[in-house]
Amino acid sequence: xxxxxxxVVVDGKGSWVAYEGYGAASDDGARATALVEHxxxxxRHIDTLSKKRYESLPDLRTxxxxxxxxxxxxxxxxxxxxxxxxxxxxxxxTPTTPDLFEDFA
Length: 105
Fold this sequence. Notes:
Layout: E1 2-3, E2 6-11, H1 17-24, H2 28-51, E3 62-69, H3 73-82, E4 93-96, H4 98-104
Helix pairs in contact: 1-2, 2-3
């Protein structure tokens, strides 16, 4: 995606296995465990992206942040309900969902 004269890096390659487990859980205990795993997975992916340093690539003029695209809005909402610190954005960590992505496009 281009914004003015710079590229916007969008990553949507996260693992959604734990979120699928959350949705498929048959009891509250299993659901709670899967939600903790989902939040952890999302947080690890955010941390990994912040370390990639796309802005340092020689042939790519990027903004100073990467958008983490979460394709399932409910997956992001449930993660933020469980850990509201996930919704806090910095210049390096900006999760986005289909609805929020429209604001950047």
